[in-house]
Automatic annotation (TrEMBL):
Membership in a protein family: Belongs to the MrnC RNase family.
Molecular functions (GO terms): ribonuclease III activity; rRNA binding
Main location: cytoplasm
Protein name: Mini-ribonuclease 3
GO cellular component: cytoplasm
Cofactor: Mg(2+)
InterPro entries noted in UniProt: Mini3_fam, RNase_III_dom, RNase_III_sf
CDD domains, alphabetized: RIBOc
Annotated active site: 33
Gene that encodes the chain: mrnC
Keywords: Cytoplasm, Endonuclease, Hydrolase, Magnesium, Nuclease, Ribosome biogenesis, RNA-binding, rRNA processing, rRNA-binding
UniProt domain RNase III: residue ranges: 11-142
Organism per entry: Natronincola peptidivorans
Length: 145
């Protein structure tokens, strides 16, 4: 998984710090959501031999707003001041539509988590991005034995 992110970085997706800070937090969250979803799908495919429908059901437990909110709360003390500021910036954005299957607070923290992932992706901090996503899997696995 890490290899394709590095390859994207090498193809010019990485932006300057200034450019990324000028991006809308919800735009970063949009990319963060995609990166995290791809990471989780890859993780599940490499650890099981299940049909696509079962993989999808398993993926939901990792990517739903409640799970992402739990992740970001457990990671808070491990995040730098800058990273937590990015989470808060994403969390505080007004959503264009209300969440359908989540509490508003969980949805906001999930948006903050995804904003951080998008930020790390676009700034080319692939190793930090991978560390956070790997820790997120551990958190979910420990909460759902």
């Amino acid at each position: 998984m890490k290899e394709w992110m590095i390859e994207l970085s090498n193809k010019g997706i990485v932006k300057t710090e200034k450019e990324v800070k000028m991006m809308a937090p919800l735009t970063l969250a949009y990319m963060g959501d995609a990166v995290y979803e791809a990471f989780i799908r890859d993780y599940l495919i490499h650890r099981s031999n299940l049909a696509v429908g079962e993989l999808h059901k398993m993926a939901i437990s990792y990517v739903k707003a409640k799970a992402q909110a739990a992740i970001v709360h457990q990671l808070e003390k491990q995040l730098t001041e800058e990273e937590w500021g990015i989470v808060k910036k994403g969390r505080n954005q007004k959503s264009p539509s209300p969440p359908k299957n989540a509490d508003l607070i969980d949805y906001k923290y999930a948006t903050g988590f995804e904003t951080l992932l998008g930020y790390l992706f676009y700034t080319g901090r692939v190793q930090r991005l991978m560390d956070i996503m790997e820790k997120s899997v551990e958190i979910i696995n420990n909460n759902n034995p």
